[in-house]
Design brief:
60s Ribosomal Protein L30, Chain: A, 6-stranded parallel β-sheet, 4-stranded mixed β-sheet, elongated
Length: 248
């Protein structure tokens, strides 16, 4: 049985100020929890139904697992429908960006606000073997429960840095080109793909910030098919298409 204090603590982790205060976040559902258990991140405690605990006995060996009823899981869950397992995970320490260790493309996100978009971008990065994201300080918190859920376990493998992007772009090696996704650039099909590069994705509402445009070496666009009438693409969909084009 979960104590009132434990329930209150887990519920508080839905809010960024308490995640930062306790240096913890929550992950829900088998896919998310099992991926975090296999990662280098520290899982502090798992709350699960008796059935889930029995099913994954080997995976949770050495981890504190508290049996919880469906009603208790509903109280601590950030989801509309509670999963059968929830984990409290320690947030990783902030890491410096080591340019010499970058391989392939690195994604840079400017002011992405939607948790679903960020979670999907993290999942996309993981699919294409991109090990880190560099986010503006205004981008939504990667440990927001909605982001964690949308990442479907990929947050366990992708490092997310929060930095002042203009300062980072000033400091980066001159040999590392920056490709910016805009509406009026060169077709991504025609761009020569480098071995290493930064791909800069702007916000859903405003695109890339004006102060960052001067750091772009090549403006790229995903061309619409003839007859297409949409004004723009969703940020996460655009990121997935760009990642695919840079991978082939």
């Amino acid at each position: 049985m979960l104590s009132k204090a434990k329930i209150k603590h887990i519920q508080s982790l839905r809010l960024g100020k308490f995640r930062r205060l306790h240096n913890q976040f929550i992950a829900e559902g088998s896919t998310n929890v099992l991926d975090f258990l296999k990662s280098n991140l520290k899982t502090l405690e798992v709350f699960a139904t008796a059935e889930w605990k029995q099913r994954f006995t080997k995976e949770v060996r050495g981890i504190l697992v508290t049996e919880a009823s469906t009603k208790e899981l509903e109280r601590i869950s950030a989801l509309k429908t509670a999963a059968e397992v929830l984990a409290v995970v320690e947030m990783p320490a902030a890491q410096e960006i080591v340019w010499s260790q970058l391989a392939g493309i690195s994604l840079m996100l400017d002011d992405i606000k939607d948790p679903g978009n960020l979670g999907t971008i993290i999942r996309t990065a993981d699919w294409f073997g991109i090990s880190q994201l560099i986010c503006s300080e205004e981008t939504v918190d990667a440990y927001n429960p909605k982001v964690v859920q949308a990442s479907m376990g990929s947050l366990a493998r992708v490092e997310v840095h929060y930095k002042e992007l203009e300062e980072i772009l000033k400091e980066k090696p001159a040999t590392l080109p920056v490709y910016g996704a805009v509406l009026n650039g060169i077709s991504i099909r025609e761009v020569e793909k480098p071995e290493k590069a930064i791909v800069l994705i702007g916000s859903e509402a405003h695109g890339i910030s004006g102060k960052l445009l001067k750091y772009i070496d090549e403006k790229i666009t995903i061309p619409a098919s003839s007859g297409g009438g949409a004004e723009s693409l969703n940020a996460s969909i655009a990121t997935a298409i760009i990642c695919y084009e840079f991978s082939i």
